[in-house]
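Subject: sequence -> C-alpha cells, single chain

Hey, anyone have a minute? Need the predicted structure for the following. Not urgent.
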Amino acid sequence: MDVLALVIGAIIAGVVIGPLARLVMPGAQDLSIGITILLGGIGALVGGIVYALFGGDETSGIDWVLHAVQVAVAVLAIVVYANVMKGRSAT
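Reply:
Had a minute. Here:
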C-alpha cells in the first residue's frame, strides 16, 4: 500500500474513530479536535494491525469487530495521552 494512501486513510479513520472513542469513555476529556483525530488515526492504524495479527480477515460487509478493536485502541491512546499530559502545565 502506498504510504500517502495509508496516511490519508488514517486521517479519515481518525475523524470517525477519535470521536467514537471519546464518546465511549466516561467523564470529560480536555482534548482538541486535532488531538482527537490524531489519536483516532493512531487507534485505527494500530487497531487494524492488532486485528490482523490475531487472525482478523476482510469481510464482504462492515467488519464490526475490526472497528471495535480500533475504537478500543483509540480509547487506550486517549487514556495514555491524558495521563502523560495531566502532570504538565502551560508555560
